[in-house]
UniProtKB/TrEMBL annotation:
This is Lanthionine synthetase C family protein. Zn(2+) binds at C265, C314, H315. GO terms for biological process: peptide modification. Keywords: Metal-binding, Zinc. One of its GO terms (molecular function) is metal ion binding. Pfam families: LANC_like. It comes from Actinomadura rubrisoli. It comes from the Bacteria.
């Protein structure tokens, strides 16, 4: 059973009410933005908040992250900017603080032991990058956010792996988050959702806002240097693989023959935005220019665009549309900025054409459902600075 336009009497699946990705928190964000754009109302927002908080909210350290449990619910409540939720947010923050402190303790112990991480330790969806994004969204600073940033600094330090040295965020499992005979030596994940682009974006947004810790700029440069190593230039423009194997890292090569689909989660849009934010944070105009040029090539190349198969926010048209809007708004390169601004509307049209021809994504959720395309459209139409996309680390 899929969520309907109004909250059902019984949640259709365990945990549905607490999922920012495909449940009530993400759908609440849609109705918050509709209210801000004067196309919705607070009554609908509060009905979805009721659905979101109907059942006990989990803050279990093995389950909760930005997209699940207490942080997901609190993210949506804070975005609503409604005094009615003040006490609920204060209560949730106590549990989220305990959760983050526990996760940080585990992560530092793992680093002390010289072990490689799993992606859910640090990534945006489940890990400490996502929890840091929540703290930045909710408090815009604070000691706990700095603790998360300090952890990310440690994450960028290299670790020994057999006779080789690998980046400290090299994952010991395959891209599906499980051990795999196809990935016996783990993998390096570059993406925004589960890879190093997420920490890069968080570090860069924090620095842009004047929130820094020791080693901050150097860590940003280290991540950018890794992305430079993986960067490829071809007739399709500039692009990066989503993941690389240990053999590729050891031989300093990339076997992927061409760019993957231009998605927020793993593709050029998310990687470009993270590097644009890094360029802005470091006042590195050259890096910012290269990032903006890479996305301008992407949005004008049919090989890139033809790989999109749905209109979702995570890996479809909506993610490309909204990332393009964000990159264009911050563009320093006049030519690339103009191309991106002009093609943003064209991409919106392509998104609608795809939806009309193939249907909207199933479900009402944020990442893979209808809420994502609708939010991308509202942002394009309203011209209001969006608050909802802080969970994607596309905001600045």
């Amino acid at each position: 059973m899929r969520p309907t336009a109004t909250p059902p009497a019984i949640d259709p699946a365990p945990g549905w009410s607490q999922s920012l990705a495909n449940g009530a928190p993400g759908i609440t964000l849609l109705h918050i933005e509709r209210t801000r754009a004067s196309t919705g109302d607070q009554t609908t927002v509060r009905r979805w908040v009721t659905a979101m908080t109907r059942n006990p909210i989990t803050a279990h350290p093995q389950v909760s992250g930005l997209f699940r449990g207490a942080p997901a619910v609190a993210f949506a409540l804070h975005t609503a900017d409604d005094a009615a939720y003040t006490h609920a947010l204060m209560a949730l923050d106590q549990h989220i603080t305990t959760l983050i402190q526990h996760r940080l303790q585990q992560a530092h112990q793992r680093i002390d032991d010289g072990r490689l991480p799993v992606s859910r330790e640090f990534d945006l969806i489940s890990g400490l990058t996502g929890l840091g994004a929540y703290l930045l969204h909710r408090h815009n600073g604070g000691d706990l956010l700095r603790d998360v940033l300090n952890y990310l600094i440690r994450l960028t330090k290299p670790l020994k792996f057999g006779d080789e040295t690998v980046p400290g965020w090299w994952c010991r499992h395959g891209p599906n988050s499980r051990p795999s005979p196809h990935w016996p030596d783990g993998h390096g994940n570059l993406g925004m959702a589960h890879g190093i682009a997420g920490p890069l974006a968080l570090l860069s947004v924090a620095m842009r806002r004047g929130i820094t810790v020791t080693g901050h700029a150097e860590s940003i440069r280290q991540i950018c240097a890794f992305l430079d190593h993986c960067c490829r230039h071809s007739r399709f423009g500039t692009w990066w693989p989503g993941v690389i194997s240990f053999t590729e890292w050891r031989l300093r090569t990339v076997r992927q023959p061409g760019p993957q689909r231009p998605s927020w989660c793993y593709g050029t849009p998310g990687l470009v935005r993270a590097q644009q934010l890094a360029g802005i944070a470091l006042a590195d105009t050259h890096r910012q220019h290269l990032a903006e040029h890479a996305l301008s090539c992407c949005v004008t190349d049919e090989h890139h665009l033809s790989q999109l198969r749905d209109s979702s926010l995570c890996h479809g048209w909506a993610g490309l549309v909204h990332a393009t809007w964000r990159v264009a708004a911050d563009a320093r390169d006049t030519d690339s900025g103009k191309i991106l601004a002009e093609h943003h509307r064209h991409l919106l049209t392509r998104m609608h054409h795809h939806s009309n021809r193939h249907g909207l994504p199933p479900g009402n959720g944020l990442l893979e459902g209808t809420a994502g395309p609708k939010l991308a459209q509202i942002t394009a139409d309203s011209r209001l600075p969006p608050r909802w996309d802080a969970c994607l680390l596309l905001n600045g």
